[in-house]
Amino acid sequence: MSTSTYAVRDGMTMLRRNLKRMQRYPAMTVSVVAMPILMLLLFVYVFGDALGNGIGLDTASGARKEYTNYVAPGIILMAATSCAVATSVAVCMDMTEGIINRFRTMPIARSSVLVGHVIGSVIQAMISLVLVIGIALAVGFRPNASLVEWLAAAGLLALLSFALTWISAAIGLGSQTVEAASNTPMPLTFLPFLGSAVVTPDSMPTVLRWFAEYQPFTPINETLRGLLLGTEIGNDAWTALAWCVGLALLGFLWARSLYSRTAKH
Amino acid sequence: MNTSAGATTDGIVAVGLRKSYGDKTVLDGVDLHIPQGTVFSLLGPNGAGKTTTVQILSTLIPADGGEARVAGHLVDREADAVRSAIGVTGQFSAVDNLLTAAENMMLVADLLHLPKDEGRRRTADLLARFDLTDVADKPASTFSGGMRRKLDLAMTLVGRPSVIFLDEPTTGLDPASRRNLWDIIQDLVSDGVTIFLTTQYLEEADHLADRIALLDGGRIVAEGTPDELKRRIPGGHIRLRFADQYRFENASRVLAEAVRDEESLILQIASDGSIPALRGLLGRLEDAGIDAEELTVHTPDLDDVFLALTGRRKAGPADEAAHSKKAAKEFTR
């Protein structure tokens, strides 16, 4: 077999290992999925009415109902970011345990450890996204997307998860402790809030509005909203794709350089 | 059974290995020559550079200078060939705590690209050999320190390595588990495997190693068989204590070479403590009709070697002091 066949095979072996680990240590997965769900319930049932009126949605059919549609795409993004924390923790735990040195002294594809983590995390993210979308539908989210639009949305979310996962894998590699690995990606979780997830950027103070317009999550959020609810997408789709690809590349290069450098024990 | 590397190949050869972290020199020119199928023990205090040496030889970190070959391959430029030949069990257990013992073994088998049934066969064999069959389906997180170390070593053996690095394999184990691991290591050697063992326990090196090197401050300060090293150390002696001044004076006339300690009526005679030496000494006393009150043989052990060569007593855990202190064998009569 060629080297690249081995790389795929080793990557799959590592993926199976990571999926098993996720099953055996469900606390992390649960907390990662619970957070966006709680946020969804909070924004729909506690703030929904007030915020719906506040940002001037068409309230003919009820402010809460309209706001549920407005906030759901942002919450879905949050589910993707919140999985990043789990990746970072999982990678860091792996690096601080002795097993990584076993892998390093075996003739296996260098990439396989990280590839196993990244693919595993993307799968975890997609499962958690399905759960969050399901609950959003249950509390009144009413997307009007066609099958193609749903597939495009799934593709965008998978790409975003992939990018975030590489970034958080790098964070996990660079963290000395599991606590640090869990705290460092936290700001990522809040980035959607500083965009168009919860309220329209128009309602923010100037500096924040400027930040909201240029940060990656706003175009991603608007693209997702457009795909699911039929709002205007425009150039946001290309900006969103460019951000995702750029972040994925950045995270990949960062993680790769950290991985070849670190020999902790 | 000799491995594919062949009997003529050296297990490990290193010339002038150097490594520093910042301005702290960890290895300052280490040379090693370890024939295939032998046990070599690198002995030294904490921070001497033992683990760094293992990390370089097992391709974990690059050396700053020097050259090393393991199983005939260069560790820096032929890392994958080296990795195919070695197994490493480090100080920190390299098992996946969330997986069961059998899953850990199969993970290694899969990474070695063994066919599934071959992987399962080796898993079953090794778990049986290490008395882990009953706990094969229990997660490693529930294991005791000794069981975990055994699983760790079992995982290392899945690939049938020809060179095995054991970095302080028995640190933190209770005496029974330690003995158990020693037996396993001796079995491996009889299969023709080369073993590179680092340890803080002099008794362990004495028990297992064909050759021992003492690493101190990044340099090898002594190397040889355990016996050679012990011979290099003066200090083996027999002590005779007498009941009264009269006997003491008589004995010291007969044994003119003895060092006198008049105060405690003790004569100290340099000796290797062997049976013929003892017999000769007692014979001379018998001929002169002198009774000794007490006889003590002090043979130098590796502790003495360590002390003499590094200028300090090996600091071990408190319970180890009693364990390795078999220096004074008392014969009281």
TrEMBL record, chain A:
Keyword terms, alphabetized: Antibiotic resistance, Cell membrane, Membrane, Transmembrane, Transmembrane helix, Transport
Gene Ontology BP, a term: response to antibiotic
Domain of life: Bacteria
Cellular compartments annotated: Cell membrane; Membrane
Secretion signal span: none
Pfam family, one: ABC2_membrane
Topology term for the membrane: Multi-pass membrane protein
ABC transmembrane type-2 domain mapped to chain residues: 27-262
GO CC term (a single one): ATP-binding cassette (ABC) transporter complex
A molecular function GO annotation: ABC-type transporter activity
Regions that span the bilayer: 25-47, 67-92, 113-138, 150-173, 180-199, 237-255
Family membership: Belongs to the ABC-2 integral membrane protein family.
Name listed for the protein in its UniProt record: Transport permease protein
Organism: Streptomyces aurantiogriseus
UniProtKB/TrEMBL annotation, chain B:
Domain ABC transporter intervals: 12-242
Enzyme Commission number(s): 7.6.2.2
Top enzyme category: translocase
Keywords: Antibiotic resistance, ATP-binding, Cell membrane, Membrane, Nucleotide-binding, Translocase, Transport
Gene3D superfamilies assigned to the protein according to its UniProt record, in alphabetical order: P-loop containing nucleotide triphosphate hydrolases
Single GO term (MF): ATP binding
Annotated localization: Cell membrane
Gene Ontology CC entries for this record: plasma membrane
PROSITE patterns on file: ABC_TRANSPORTER_1, ABC_TRANSPORTER_2
InterPro entries assigned: AAA+_ATPase, ABC_transporter-like_ATP-bd, ABC_transporter-like_CS, ABC_transporter_ATP-binding, DrrA, P-loop_NTPase
GO terms (BP aspect): daunorubicin transport; doxorubicin transport; response to antibiotic
Keyword Repeat: no
Membrane topology type: Peripheral membrane protein
Protein family (similarity comment): Belongs to the ABC transporter superfamily. Drug exporter-1 (DrugE1) (TC 3.A.1.105) family.
NCBIfam families reported in the protein's UniProt record: drrA
PANTHER family assigned to the protein according to its UniProt record, in alphabetical order: ABC TRANSPORTER ATP-BINDING PROTEIN (PTHR42711), DOXORUBICIN RESISTANCE ATP-BINDING PROTEIN DRRA (PTHR42711:SF19)
Annotated protein name in UniProt: ABC-type xenobiotic transporter
Native source species: Streptomyces aurantiogriseus
